[in-house]
Structure formats: structure tokens, C-alpha cells
Amino acid sequence: MDIIKILANEYKVDLEKDSIHELSLILERREYKKDEIILHRGTISRQMFIIEKGIIRQFYYKDGRDITEHFSSEGNIATCLESLFLKEPTKLLVEAIEPSIIYLLDYEKFKLLCNKYPSINELYQRILEYKLIVSQQKADSWRFESAHERYERFCREYPMVAKRASIAHIATYLLMTPETLSRVRAGVL
Which residues lie closer than 8 Å to 31 by C-beta, 6 or more apart? Predict the structure, then answer.
């Protein structure tokens, strides 16, 4: 299955043939339309989302505005970690911001495969490490970087998203207004 090969390459893990087969059995392929909600606020997240095609965003509402928490595009994995781990309703929503093909990976079945196959366990560890690093880098960026530096980092780290996501979504992700982002992009700030 191509999506598994993409994951193995992305996270630099050599998967055994048997583990690839078993992993393919627990993946569910879904297609989503632009602006379709993949995970609703208040539900318990039971899956990890592997993006084969398209872009999704995780977001929440604050004071009547939607704020983008994270973007994921081809080859990325998205999940609402807190809900997934604690089995509590999520405060986030997950939305396809363009037509997307996503593989749903059942978390409990994935954990069973982690116990069975060392390479799947290694994949899981690398996914979690990546998620933690990205979260820390984002927090540091918000705390220590200027608006211009945050935008440059975003373009460097998410070039496909920078080209394809809306200004409004990118602006909320960078903690800016769309007007401020326009000025940053024009080199005024």
C-alpha cells in the first residue's frame, strides 16, 4: 500500500512485510470534500488521520472566531492527541480545506500492532516525537519570533500549505489578522 510506504519513508522506518500487510488491514480510506468536517468538537478522537492527498486543518473557536491550530498535508499524520490518549471529547475540529483523501488509522488496533511488531512501535515513537517537536517549535515561534519571522518559518516548514491554504486560515495559525499577514507578505512589517 503506497500510503504505508510514504509513512515509512517520512519517518525513516523499515517495516517488515507482515507488518505492512497487517497495518494495511486496519486503514480505512476516505474521501472528503472541501470544507467538510472530519472530526467534530465534542466527539472522542479514536483515529489518526494520514493524509494521502489534500490539506486538513485542526481548529477551535475562541470568542466567536475560528483559530487554526495545525495544518497537515500529503504524507503527514494529524490527530487530536489529548482526546486520543485520554478518551475525552475533543475541543478541536478537523476540516478538509481542499478535496482530500485520508486514511483513518484506528488507534487501539495500531497500538496492538506496536506490541506485535518492533518496527511499527518504532514508527509510532517517531510519529510522537515529531508531534512533540513540532508542538514545541510552534510554541517557541509564537513566544520569541516576530510576525515576519513566524511567516518565514511557516513558508519554509509548510511550503505546500503556504501556497494552497487561505490567507484567513494562515493568519489565525500565525496569530495575526489577515491584514497583518498581508503587510508581512508585502514586506511592510
Answer: 99, 100, 101, 102
